[in-house]
């Protein structure tokens, strides 16, 4: 209702000129009651609108609802999906390695998940016979629930979300203890860190590779152009992965202390974090996916001090020359403390430094 001099006028809000036409009504009807077009490119199947409505009506957190939305839209980064984008070395399920990792396999058909669905409180039959598409399966559940009570859709959605998280982190490396742990003989451990000063927008990266004896094997530190701390961390990881090409065949364990980066990249959740970092994350994923003999760990800051010191030093403008062969005193101290602590914790009685 306009408050000014203009009189009331009936307008159709969905037509550009405000006039109602049959065509407008038809488009509106399709929009309201019709189907959404499936986001999966190879399929002409449309997810029924009842499914989308059902998801938004769930009495769940918005995180779970948007997860279900992505499931039904085929928008989850499964290994098959990543493989087709050359971001994963294999399309097979990371848990059973028997079937392509598509969303239906991930959430419903992989052996251990099937057991979950067939048990109480779900008692749902889940097999290749019954499941062709996740959205159809969930749509069936919506209509079944209308007829019989007992299966809570909220619980089903929550279980799907938990299954996905469990999958992602089942193969993901775990957080290691508070101290730096040397790699096993024959392997190299690479600690990676970024630093960012938000007052001056100066950023730096530190990358340091050590062998099983704690000896610095290679490293890099330098200033980078970043707009956030997260971006500096991501750039450090990207550079570290790129440097792998200099050491073909080397077994490497990368350690980072940025949980957000770790979750996004190694949990394959590329949506989120700093929006400006999308292309960097993609490059990390490609690098990690194509690298052989490489593993990743999320570590605590305390065990990533050498890389942290390097990154912070370059941000402060310290010029570090030949630090790999002759580390400056503060870095030498961190390195010897790292090794001393590790040996002490492992019960090796050997004085260092
Ligand atoms: Zn599987």
UniProtKB/TrEMBL annotation:
Ranges for the Reverse transcriptase zinc-binding domain? 50-117
RNase H type-1 domain residues = 191-313
What InterPro entries does its record include?
RNase_H-like_dom_plant, RNase_H-like_EbsB-rel, RNaseH-like_sf, RNaseH_domain, RNaseH_sf, RVT-Znf
Query: Which Pfam family, just one, is annotated for this protein?
Result: zf-RVT
Keyword annotations: Nucleotidyltransferase, RNA-directed DNA polymerase, Transferase
The cross-references to SUPFAM superfamilies, in alphabetical order and at most eight, read: Ribonuclease H-like (SSF53098)
**One GO MF term:** RNA-DNA hybrid ribonuclease activity
**Protein name per Swiss-Prot or TrEMBL:** Reverse transcriptase
């Amino acid at each position: 209702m306009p408050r000014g001099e203009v009189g009331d006028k009936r307008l159709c809000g969905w037509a550009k000129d405000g006039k109602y036409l049959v065509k407008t009504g038809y488009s509106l009807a399709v929009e309201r009651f019709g189907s959404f077009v499936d986001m999966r490119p190879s399929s002409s199947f449309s997810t029924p609108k009842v499914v989308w409505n059902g998801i938004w009506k769930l009495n769940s957190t918005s995180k779970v609802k948007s997860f279900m939305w992505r499931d039904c839209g085929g928008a989850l980064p499964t290994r098959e999906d990543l493989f087709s984008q050359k971001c994963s070395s294999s399309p097979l399920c990371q848990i059973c390695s028997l079937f392509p990792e598509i969303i239906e396999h991930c959430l419903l058909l992989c052996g251990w998940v099937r057991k979950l669905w067939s048990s109480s409180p779900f008692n749902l039959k889940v097999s290749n016979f019954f499941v062709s598409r996740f959205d159809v399966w969930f749509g069936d559940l919506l209509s079944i629930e209308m007829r019989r009570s007992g299966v809570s859709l909220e619980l089903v959605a929550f279980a799907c979300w938990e299954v996905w998280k469990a999958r992602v982190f089942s193969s993901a490396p775990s957080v290691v203890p508070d101290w730096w742990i040397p790699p096993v003989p024959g392997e190299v451990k690479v600690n990676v860190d970024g630093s960012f000063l938000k007052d001056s927008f100066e950023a730096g990266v530190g990358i340091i590779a050590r062998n099983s004896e704690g000896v610095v094997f290679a490293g890099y530190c330098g200033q980078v152009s970043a707009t956030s701390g997260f971006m500096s961390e991501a750039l450090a990881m990207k550079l570290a992965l790129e440097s792998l090409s200099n050491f073909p065949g080397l077994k490497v364990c990368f350690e980072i202390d940025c949980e957000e980066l770790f979750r996004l990249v190694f949990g394959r959740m590329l949506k989120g974090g700093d929006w400006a970092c999308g292309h960097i994350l993609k490059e990390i994923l490609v690098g990690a996916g194509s690298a052989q003999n490489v593993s990743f760990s999320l570590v605590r800051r305390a065990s990533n001090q050498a890389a942290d010191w390097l990154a912070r030093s370059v941000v402060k403008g310290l010029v570090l020359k030949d630090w790999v062969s002759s580390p400056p005193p503060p870095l030498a101290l961190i390195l010897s403390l790292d090794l001393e602590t590790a040996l002490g914790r492992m019960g090796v009685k050997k004085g260092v430094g």
